[in-house]
Amino acid sequence: MKIKLNYIAALGALLIAMFVFITACEEEKTVPPLVPVKAEIKQIIINNSVYVIEYRDKVVEDMDTVVIIVPQGTDITNLDVDILYSYFGSIDPLPGITDFSNPVIYTITSNFETRDVMVMVQQVPPSLTSFLITSPVELVGKIVRDSLGLGNDTIKLSIREGIDVSNATFSVNFFGESVIPDPAGKIDLTKDTVIIVTNKEFQSTYVIDIEYYKVIEFTGVIFDGSMHPNSFLPGAINAEDSAFFSVEDDAFATLGGGKVARFINLDYTGNTTGSASFDFAKLGLDANPEAVTVIIRGKGYATHVTDHRYVEINVQMDLWRYQFWVTDDGLDGSGYSNLPYEDIAAGLDPLQWNTYRLTANYITGEVKIYLNEAKDPIPEMMPLFMEPRSDPAWKFSFGDGSGGNSYDGSYDYVIIETGGAYSPDDLSLEKILATYQGTK
Questions:
Q1: pLDDT recorded at residue 185
Q2: What is the pTM of this model?
Q3: Which of 38, 243, 352, 367 has minimal CB crowding within 10 Å?
Q4: 293 and 280 in contact (C-beta within 8 Å)?
Q5: Strand-by-strand arrangement of the 169-175 sheet
């Protein structure tokens, strides 16, 4: 019995000691200060819909002003309102069925402050906030508001040619009561189409404006420097001039397995021709194109001979020949051309590899040159660029086409496209070269 009592006593002493220890620890605890919470309205829900709130300039000094935007036609005298306000705070009056014909002032109290907030309701016409074509392709429409407020709002769509949009599906987000036509159905975009957003007796109309665009595919040919022009197209160079072209190694060639075609004619007084000429029809292209794009990656070699040319491009369509060349300026080896010197010399080193894109439109007579795939062409050409010929032809040639200059230059590749006059944005060099499978 004594042992049991001693056990109980010992247990009691232990419990007392633990109680004293815990109490002492609790006395050492410090209560952290409360974090101040701003008294404010965070969210307003009206008729079970969350509305975006906008803090505006104060109408009354020291009183925040909140504006709620609702669709025109909403009965603002009987709105079922719920308000999310500061945590651990209070609001007066309590949210519920409220008449907002006049501003309502709510008093928000937090653990830090008390503030009055004036809540106003503003009605605006029903509106479309987003428009999406979901089939046959996914397209996001650009909603353009009428800046004059005359109701001429539009939805702009950009659609590729060839896509059948006569039975399209769509989805919308809108600010109002309903949308016509019903997004659950389909629309025929080949006809004049409007989207109408309604709220009670009010409505807003959006006209769908479609711009069709064409995807340009490369349909031309690529000649790389791995072969002599006569191997690419027999008869491209006459027999006596054929020796002016050779195939060389060049570590910087991008096509043709490190090979480039080099054309050298330093004695132009003894031989005044030497061009390689590719007839469009013989290449299997459009025999009489309305517009042509030619791209050459070329490099020149300095010889310090008077009127020495590094690169020359000639396109003839019918009786008109369009020319572009880069020539030694006779001073420091930099390039100038039949374009204004100040527009080209500063940014061109003709002794390095450069890409030259020539576009020519036979119908309009417009000719452009793009250097190294720049977005914009070199400024306006000089009259010498275009000249009449006595015999009609439809062809492209490169080399010393004028017959009055020495020439030394290499060609990594030549691209000929008779589908149109395409800028780098219209048909990129990257897209063209992705089709390359070797010179046939």
A1: 93
A2: 0.58
A3: 352
A4: no
A5: 139-140, 127-135, 169-175
Determine the average pLDDT of the residues in 331-353: 55
Average pLDDT over all residues of the chain: 82
3-state secondary structure of 277: strand
**Domains of the chain, CATH where assigned:** 41-124 (2.60.40.2340), 127-213 (2.60.40.2340), 221-433 (2.60.120)
CA 314 from centre of chain: 33
Locus of tokens 């709620």: 68
- pLDDT for residue 400 is more than 50: yes
- Cβ atoms within 10 Å, residue 197: 24
Measuring CA to CA, which residue among 221, 220, 225, 229 is closest to residue 277?
229
Local structure of residue 428 (DSSP, 8 states)? -
Phi, psi for 202 (deg, rounded to 5): -100, 150
Which pLDDT belongs to residue 391?
A: 92
Query: Exposure of 351 by Cβ count < 10 A (0-12 exposed, 13-18 middle, 19+ buried)?
Result: middle
Tokens describing residue 16: 């007392």
Higher pLDDT, 50 or 110: 110
In this structure, are residues 82 and 28 in contact, taking their beta carbons and an 8 Å threshold? no
Burial class (CB in 10 A: 0-12, 13-18, 19+), 79: buried
More confident residue, 347 or 187: 187
Which of the listed ranges 142-151, 178-187, 244-253, 330-339 does the model predict with the highest average pLDDT?
A: 178-187
Task: Please provide the DSSP assignment of 15-64 as one string.
Answer: HHHHHHHHHHHHHH--PPPPPP----EEEEEETTEEE-EEEES-SSTT-E
Output the DSSP codes for 97-143: EE--SS-EEEEEE-SS-EEEEEEEEEEE--EEEEEEEEESS-EEPEE
**pLDDT value at position 275?**
77
The 8-class DSSP code of residue 236 comes to S
**Selection from 33, 31, 35, 39 nearest residue 66 by Cα:** 39
H or E element that contains 386: strand 386-398
Rounded Cα gap, residues 230 and 236, in angstroms: 5
Residue 433 host element (H or E): helix 429-433
Amino acid at 59: V
**Cβ 229 vs Cβ 261: under 8 Å:** yes
